[in-house]
Structures
1.
Amino acid sequence: MRSALAGAVMVLGVCAVPATEARAQVALGYTDAGVVLGLGNVGNANIAFGGRFERIFRKLPDLGDGLLGIGVSADYYSYSNGGGGYTASVKVLPIGATANYHFKIDPKKKLDAFLGAGLGYQVVTCSYNGPGGSTNFCSNSAVYFIGRAGGRYFLKPNLAVYADAGAGAATLSVGLTFKLK
C-alpha cells in the first residue's frame, strides 16, 4: 500500500510541472508507452499496476477528421483472504487490445481525447490452503469486452498524463505516457 501511495504522489508531482511548452502531439504515426495505476473493479485488491502502449495508424477524414489507433494494455493485481484456519489468494492478469478513435482537437489545447473498444483475456489463478489441504480452487480465465473513454494531457511534447475509464481491467486507470515516435 505504501508503494502505491508513493507512486500516486509521484504522478501528482509530475502533473504539477508547468506545461507551457507542451502541445498535443497525437498525429499519424504517433506511438507511446506508459505506466498506470488502476482503481475499481479489482476484486479485493486496492490497486492494480499496469502499462499501456498505443500506435496511431490511420487518418479518418470521413469520421470528423479523427485518428485511429491500436492500443494494448496489461494490468496486474492480487489479493488474499484468510481466517478460521484457511488462506486463499487470487492473482489476476488482464491483457487487452483496443481500437481507439481520437477526436480532432486544436493542438494548442495540449489535450488528446479518445473512445476505445476491444477485447481482452483475463488470466486468473487462485490457491487455497486450509482444512482439507491445499489446492488451486479456480481458474476463471476468460475473454472480456473492453470499452473505455480516455485522454492525455501533454506536460511536454514527449510526456503526458494519461487516464482512461470504463469497462475492462480497472474502472479508472491513471498514469504517465512517454512518446516513443
2.
Amino acid sequence: MIREEIIIGYIKGKDVLDVGGVGQNPSYNLWDDMRPHAGSLTGIDLSPSENKDIILGNMENHSFDRKFDVIVLGDVIEHVDNQGLLLDNIRRHLKEEGVLIVTTPNAKWPTVFMPTNPTHTLCHDKATLCNILKTHGFNIVEFKYYYGNKRCYNFLVRPLIMRQQMLAVCKLERGFEDHER
C-alpha cells in the first residue's frame, strides 16, 4: 500500500508517536506496520489498550515530557473535536527537524453522497487540509492522493479510487509563533 510505504520511509529508526494508536478498525491501524521499523514507538488514544506503549489520553491537551522525531495522524484528524488545538499540541511535541504525517479521507471523493461516518467531526479536501496545517505552523513537503486503506484492491479498481485518501508530510514552519494566527 502507498500509505504504509511512505510512512515507513520516514520512521525508520526514529522516535515515533502514533496518535490514535488503538484505531477504530484493524484495517486502518498503522501500529503493527510501524512497530518493526520505528526506533521507538509510543501511542496515544482515547480508547484503552492492553499495549503498555499506548497511553490513554487526548492529544488535543496531553503533555508528554519529550518531543518526537515523527508524529503520525493516521486517519485521525477527521475524528478530532478541535483540530487546531490538536495541531498546536503536536507542534509542541515535534522536534525542530521532525515530521508530521497526516492521512485522511478526501472530502471531495464521491462518498460525500453516502451517509457519513458518525465519528467524523470535520472532513477535508486538499485545500482545507493544506490551509489548516499552514495556519498551525506546518509546511507540507510531500502530498499524495492514494486509494483507500484496505490491504488489497483489485488492480482494475485502483484507478477508480486513486483520490479516495490524502497523505500530507509536514515539517515545522521556521519562526512560526502562535500569535501569527
3.
Amino acid sequence: MKPLRPVMLAHHCRGFSLIELVTVLILLGIIAAIAVPRFGGVQQFREYGYAEELIAALRYAQQVAVARNQPVIIAIEPSGVRICLASIENGDNTCPAPNGNSAPHYLQNPGSDRRWDGIQAGQAPPGVSLSVSPSTPLTFAFNGLGEPVHWNNDAWQAVSALMTLTVGTHTLTLEAHTGYVY
C-alpha cells in the first residue's frame, strides 16, 4: 500500500499567514509612532546646525588671527555673523555689511569657499534667531594672541566677562581670556 501524501502541501506553502501580516503591521505602527515625531522638529536641527557652524567659524577666526598676528573682527547680528580681517594700518574696528563696491576683507569659509559676509556664509537659517549676552560687544575681535577683545576708546581692550551667544535653544559660550568657544 502507498503512503498517503498531502496533495495540497505544495499550494499551501505560498505567501504569508494572516498572523504574520498582522504582526508586521503592528510592528510598523509602533516604529512609526516612535520615529515620526522625531522627524517633525526640523527647527531644532536648523538651530543645532547653525550653532555648530558658529562654533566652527569662531574657532577658525581665532586661528586666522593667531596665524596672521592680526585682529579678526566678528560682527554679530540677529540675522547672522560677519567675519573680517582688521586693517592694522587704518585702525579698522568694524566689519560692515557689504554695500556694492566697498567691501571689507571678509574671511573665506574654508568648507564652502564663500565669504563670511552674513549673506554668502554666516547667515542664520529661516526661523533661527541669534542673540548675544552681554549685548554691548556685538562686535568683537580676536587679537594676534587669540584673545577676544573689543574696541573701546580708540584701542582694542580685553573682553573681561564671558560672552554667550544663543541660537534658539542652544547656548554657546566664549571664554573671556582664552577665546575658547563651546
4.
Amino acid sequence: MWIQIWLGIVTILLVVLFMWILRRQAPNADSVLQDEMESFFAEFERENNEMLEAIARFKQNMTMQLNGQAADLNSLREQVTALHSQCEELRSLMEGKEPLPEMVEDRETHQPSALSFLRDDYKEIPPLYHSGFSVPDIARKLGLGSGEVEMVVQMLKKNQEKG
C-alpha cells in the first residue's frame, strides 16, 4: 500500500513538474511562432509589392502599345479619307470620258472583249503569240505552265474564228 501512495505522489509531482516546464517553454514557443509569422508577413508584403510593380510595368507597356496603335489607326483613317477623296476626284474626271480599252464591249455582238476576261498574268500572251512565239517559249518567258498558255491561245483562236 505504501508503494501505491508513494507512486501516486511521484506521479503527481511528475505531472506538476511537466506542467511547469511546459509553461516555461510556452512563452518561448509563442515568441518563435510570432517571429515566424512576422517573417512570413514581411515576405508576403515584399512579394505583393513586386507583383504590384510588375502589374504597373505591364499596364505602362500596354498603355504605350495602345497609344501607338491608336496613332496607327488615326494614320490609317487619314489615308482612307485621302483615298476616298482621290476616288471621288477620279470619278468626277471620268464622267463624260470613254471607258478603258479593256472594258470596251464588242459593239456588234454586245459581248465583252476576249482580253477583258484574261488575268493580268495572261495579258502578255496574245502579243507574244501573234509575234510568232511558240506555246512553250511563251510559258518559259512568262513563267507560266504550258497548259495555261495553251488554254489562252485556244481562247484567242476561237475568238478570231468568231470575228
